[in-house]
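G., the chain you wanted modeled:
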Amino acid sequence: MEQKRFGTFEAVFTPTILSILGVIMYLRLGWIVGQVGLYGALIIVVSSNIITLLTGLSIASITTNIRIGTGGAYSIISKSLGLEVGGAIGMPLYLSQAISVAFYITGFTECWVFIFPQHNFILVSIITWVVLLLISYNSAKLAFRLQYAVLLCIFLSLISIFLGKSYLSSSTVLLKGLHEVGFWNAFAIFFPAVTGILAGVSMSGELKEPQRSIPVGTLSAIIVSFVVYLALAFWYSVDASASELAGNTSIILGICRWRILVIAGIMGATLSSALSMFVASPRTLLALGKHKLIPFSSSFNHINKKGEPSVAILFTALLALVTISMGTLNTIAVILTMFFLITYGTLNISVFIEKIIGITSFRPSFRIPVIFSLLGGIGCFYAMFLINQVFSFTAIAVTVIIYIFLVRRQSRRQWPDVRKGFFLFIAEQAIKIASRLPYHPKIWKPNLLIPVDEAKDWVGNLELIKNITLPRGRVNFFCVNEGSAVDTNKHQAKDKDMAILLKPLEEEGLIVTASVIDADNFFSAAGTVMQALSGEALAPNLLFMKIGSDSQKDRNVKGLIEKAVSTNLGIILLRFHPKVGFGQNENINLWIRRGSPNINLAILIGLQLERNWEGNLRILQAVEDESQKPQALEYLNKLKRIMRLSKETEASVLVAPYEESLSCAPLAGINIFGIPLNYDIGLMRKVSEKINTSVLFLRDSKQEDALV
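Predicted structure as tokens:
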């Protein structure tokens, strides 16, 4: 059970400001002023703090909208963009936090050895590691209380700095620097100083009032640290020359009033940052374990009697120790910064998405303009690539790989997740734009509406449906649960059958939907469905039906054809040959009659099958007299040319009466015919039997044009 133990100042403000006011403030800010001058330094400080302020505002907004729970940034992102995105961010974020412990310990040790050069570097690091482990393992509250002493050391060091002596004989302001390094290089060196804003957020699960503490504590720390950095930048510019600042990164020790206070401040800043990460990172690991996103989740999801995640702390300590033993890891340090920035950017994007999609559930008590979160997200990712492009791509690639892995686990947990809402928002906006544009046959693609009597009867036809619709077509199945009284069990059984039917097509990447409709009879329900869908933004354009062996159902088929014509649907009737099916031949015979009103749909469906079936299209025409053959062949070749059919498309003219030509047609897996105005379904069955293949019978809706 999570214990709500901490308040705003001790668990949010203090660790956050101590993470921001660190080594860069003491040992790099003066160097930056020397390189780019006061104006350049102010631009760097202001722009960096704008990014973190925008991120802090996003954090403040989203934390007043949700119950955060354990995990800080991981929990916030998970409850907005789903467990998979949260896990993809949370895993590298945890590693960054855990390994950062080692870097801060190394920084502390370097300062210690500077004062006591006779001490062994590794031994000091290990002793520091042991002390921090004991503090964090036994009591996070003790860790926060120790941070008060560090905060006091930093405050006293700042007094020592501002009361210090000047290297300059006259009161001048350094406006321009040496520019030995570029502005953006200086920006990249400074920016990690302001990336500690999640130190307090990570304690979200143990705050008494997280919805209040996180916004107040985080934003207060950002504002206070911003003022400190501005004041220090100005102080450096009037106390030393550009060459002195750029040539000595430790100049602050020479121009402060009391050197020991500054040394204590530097050591305290690094030590507190290490302790802060020692406390915060196990909480992220605890949350990942709770949601079973990592190996040995049950072990990490353990809290001892004192309310501390003991196993997570010990694992974090081990990881930090391994990192310490590896020595200086500057390359990894840059990658760690990338993961922090990905986290901050994703937090901003989470707020932006929830805001723009207009969901009622997003109603934070702390509201910010949507442009703030967008600019914060852009700023974070922009800063990443300014710092190091290679490591930015590396960090993004690692995050994407983890996301793909988690998605493939196909967790079906009920979890607050706005990803679907985001994509629906995009679709809705696209539909709004599309609805204002005129339709043209150039954009035609096969979108099938398929009435289903029994789902199992369609399993053998899924391959054909796939080959007609791939790669970008859609399929809408509907099934009617007939009866004057609603049979819930029967409805649920049909729902299950339809879900099974859809799965192979979904796995091919097709957009497939299915619905079960309760109605008195199939025919009236099917007509209503066609009429209702005709007004939809993503309406079907083809009615696909089967001609069965039962002639008793022909009346319903004719009725549905009439309904389809009245709602501007094209028609595809499949007569599946019960003995040969689609055979072993991959050719497609397309029968063309001069002046046929169905030629456009026939050509388009033939091309779809040729591409997806990987077969060869053949266009055929039957004439009764040999003298008609040259003219018919000329027509087919002309058609082949103007319809832009492939060179492999064969044009063939059969000299025989129509019914006899069916028997002598070249071998094919399927034959395609147009549906005449005065059609006979019984005759369609005979055609299939005569030609000895499965057959498609098509009728244009006048919405197709194979010439465009």
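The longest helix spans residues 29-63.

Shout if anything looks off.
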